Amino acid sequence: MVAVNRRVPRPRELAPLLQFRRPTLNRTERRLQTAFTIEDLRRIAKRRTPKAAFDYTDGAAEDELSLARARQAFRDIEFHPTILRNVATVDTSRTVLGDTVAQPFGIAPTGFTRLMHTEGEIAGARVAARAGIPFSLSTLGTASIEDVKAANPHGRNWFQLYMWKDRDRSMALVKRAAAAGFDTLLVTVDVPVAGARLRDSRNGMSIPPTLTLRTVLDALPRARWWFDLLSTEPLAFASLDRWPGTVAEYLDTMFDPTVTFEDLAWIKKQWPNRLVVKGIQTLEDARAVVELGVDGIVLSNHGGRQLDRAPVPFHLLPHIARELGKDTEVLLDTGIMSGADVVAAAALGARFTLVGRAYLYGLMAGGEAGVARAVEILSSQVSRTMRLLGVTSLDELGPHHVTQLHRFTRGDSRPVG
Ligand SMILES: Cc1cc2nc3c(=O)[nH]c(=O)nc-3n(C[C@H](O)[C@H](O)[C@H](O)COP(=O)(O)O)c2cc1C
């Protein structure tokens, strides 16, 4: 044993070590200060949100393999830093679809957002305005196009289109978005029919949520969510007030499964600004839409909520970016849980990324303040990862910065980078 010289403790030396912080009085802020990762926000969200709403957000289709694999692909990244670069300042901005963004990520379109937290899309749009990132409003959004514009009046708003069987109604929304100055239309193409979201079926999910004995018991520790639901404007979007089944069942009654490439060309003719196709999963389809003259594509499997065991978008990225990156802007989503994931995607050729659940976990954890916390976490991870890699701008990132451990092998997959 090492002999240590001991002495009587001196209070004078202890004093500078005692740094009691002034307690944060706001309970939401206090809660959010304990979150350092998106996974931390997810844990808080789960405690505060009724099971049916949390599972609708957190869940994916069938066995949820598409989502699990997409997240795993990001975890399996190996970064290759360069050293001895001056990284005192770092610039995370770039031009995306003709305009500047402050970060290489933006908010993905999500339906029924007020089901997760009563502040819904407006919280997302307001945070996007402050952060200088785009906000995307879904056809199934629970805030109007005009209210989103009012919440993000000078920033970038994108509208996501689902083609309904009643095409006039879909195109009326597109016209409203153009009139409100939305600069980009995201046409989602991976929902010919809804994926099987089994958690929703098992939870007996309905819109708005119904009070059964089970939901009442579930509500007891989550009284705040129910109070918010009942004390604010009823949950509704466009024409739907009440639907007794799951969201997937609703989608199947409303959506047009006959949409083809010709329809995409038809939509493009009616949209005056940038058009991006969301839900591309093969090089051939990417080529076909680029030939139609679209401004960008989103490699996405809809956060694993549609086809299960779909390609991992991050695996598709290097090849498609190499083949088509000069002709179109390649965007990516699905599975992003950290700013490091965003940086890896940028290194492999993604011009931009979208985050769905990462933002929604923040929303459920604390409304607008929770979304702000999510964006703050992602932004600080982006700039820290860039500095640790030895780069000061996104354009300096390249495939040499990232390789991937080959947990999954696909017949036609190529090594990343
Ligand atoms: C709760 C929820 C609702 C969604 N609703 C829509 C939607 O209405 N339209 C759409 O194009 N994509 C929708 N998506 C997919 C997202 O736009 C995005 O592709 C996906 O969330 C990305 O994966 P991530 O959640 O892992 O970030 C939804 C995703 C979630 C989680």
General description of the model:
It comes from Mycolicibacterium elephantis DSM 44368. FMN binds at residues 109-111, 138, 160, 188, 278, 300, 356-357. Glyoxylate binds at residues 56, 162, 197, 302, 305. GO terms for molecular function: FMN binding; oxidoreductase activity. The protein is α/β, with parallel strands linked by helices and 417 residues long. The protein has a single domain (41-404), classed as TIM Barrel. It has helices at residues 11-14, 27-32, 38-48, 51-58, 65-75, 113-116, 120-131, 145-151, 167-179, 198-203, 213-219, 223-231, 247-254, 261-270, 283-291, 313-324, 339-347, 357-389, and strands spanning 77-79, 94-96, 99-101, 105-107, 135-137, 157-161, 184-188, 274-280, 296-299, 329-332, 352-355, 402-404. It has an eight-stranded parallel sheet with strand order 4-11-10-9-8-7-6-5. It has a two-stranded antiparallel ribbon with strand order 1-12.
